[in-house]
Amino acid sequence: MEPSLLPPDNMGTEPRYLKLGDIEAYRISFALSNVVWRQVASCEQLAQRTVGKQFVRATDSISANIAEGFGRFSKKDKVRFYRIARGSLFEALDWNEKAKVRGLVTPAQYMQVYTELQRLPKAINSPIKFTNERLKI
Prior knowledge:
This protein is mainly alpha-helical and 137 residues long. It is built from four helices and two strands. It has a two-stranded antiparallel ribbon with strand order 1-2. Helix 3 runs antiparallel to helix 4 (107-134).
């Protein structure tokens, strides 16, 4: 894996390497996937097998694809996985709406997930832009 070089940090003159946890979209989506997991775990079995399973898979897919893109070597591969993550984000928005309409989540649970999902498009665009502008490969 070829890490992405960042400018020196404020503390020293040595450049530092970008870590997966430095990517805001990854941090948000990873935390969100655990919130959705806990919500679905408290649902009845029918809801878990239908909406719940797909909702968890969609939210898990966001951070998983960001992680996979981060680990790819070529610019094209990295951006492809970041874009797949963005697609999973919109799928998760759909499942969140279905969970609300079908009464599977409380209004507060719905808003918590919705608010975090609304933060992600801009956050996912950031590593896409960084990759396209800074990486040469």
